Amino acid sequence: MDLIVPVGGRTQWEVGGPAPAAEHETRAPGALVRYEPADMTISVGAGMTFDALDAIVAPHGQEVPLDPRSRAATIGGLLACGLSGPRRLRHGPLRDHVLEVRIALADGRVVKGGGPTVKNVTGYDLPRLFVGSLGTLGLILEATLRCRPRPAVSRWCAAPAAASFHRPAARLWDGTHEWVLLEGNRADVDAQSAPLPALDAPPALPEGPHRGRVSVAPARVRAVGAALDGDVRWCAEVGVGTVHVAADDVKGLERAREIARAHDGWLLREAGGAAADDGYGRPLPNLALMRRIKDAFDPEHRCNPGRMPL
Predict the structure, then answer these.
(1) 245 with 291, same domain?
(2) 102 in the same domain as 182
(3) ∠89-91-96 over CA atoms, to 5°?
(4) Distant-in-sequence, close-in-space partners of 129: CB < 8 Å, separation ≥ 6
(5) What is the torsional sign of CA 73, 74, 76, 79?
(6) 154 CB-near residues (< 8 Å, 6+ apart)
(7) How distant, in Å, are the alpha carbons of 82, 126, 137, 166, 223 from that of 12?
(8) Per-residue pLDDT tens for 67-91?
(9) Phi-psi map region of 123: left, alpha, beta (phi>0 left; psi -120 to 50 alpha)
(10) What tens digit of pLDDT does each residue of 265-308 get?
(11) pTM attached to this predicted model
């Protein structure tokens, strides 16, 4: 039985469980399908890189705020992994930017879910189902995404603890420093950032051979951060509930996972981890339902087996 192993830019290749070995890798086309600046929607082949997509919409004063860690990531890979960027605080989770998807199933059928308009609400919400599925249900061939106005000014500043801002795009905190990203027209950004030290570059998320992201209730982020201090580098998205973690050895990542569990959360492995790490370290929520969905879309389990512990 031939396996179907979708491949994008390999920038998130270690997210979740390990990808299966396969003789043939499957890649989606990467061409522009349709761009409607007036409607603020763009349809692209899932093999297009984020950098290429951004180059298309930027001259029209628009953006698609997926905010990948690497601009070489493909659109299909970003959707399959489902990892929201640091501007989720203002723009919402990654799945909210997806309007329509075209999918190739394991039996060769091509199906469509969603619609190319912002207000489309017909049918089952297949786009959100496939976001974060890690290629285990089928291959994303094409996606229609919602564009947004590109802010005239984006400015990272050092922020005093507990300071108040009007609709910040992001707030990051590493236990010692807190930063805020302010976006909008120049007058508004200047007024909010006037008393704050501006940064020359965005604050960096923690790096290391063993990396993951903790998801907890937003109110528990500071408690998780306090517990992580030690051999784990971390940076929290204030107001969202995501804590990015990195460690130099496996034990640091394991400790971060235990801390996440102790605060009623969980950790998704993004890189590294122990050899037997399935990426999640615990039974997935609604596992029985997820297995039923897997059986319905991929009854022979040919699509990326092992990438999710199903």
Answers:
(1) no
(2) no
(3) 115
(4) 113, 137, 293
(5) positive
(6) 169, 181, 182, 183, 189
(7) 10, 22, 18, 33, 28
(8) 999 999 999 999 999 999 999 999 9
(9) left
(10) 999 999 999 988 889 887 777 889 999 999 999 999 999 998 88
(11) 0.93
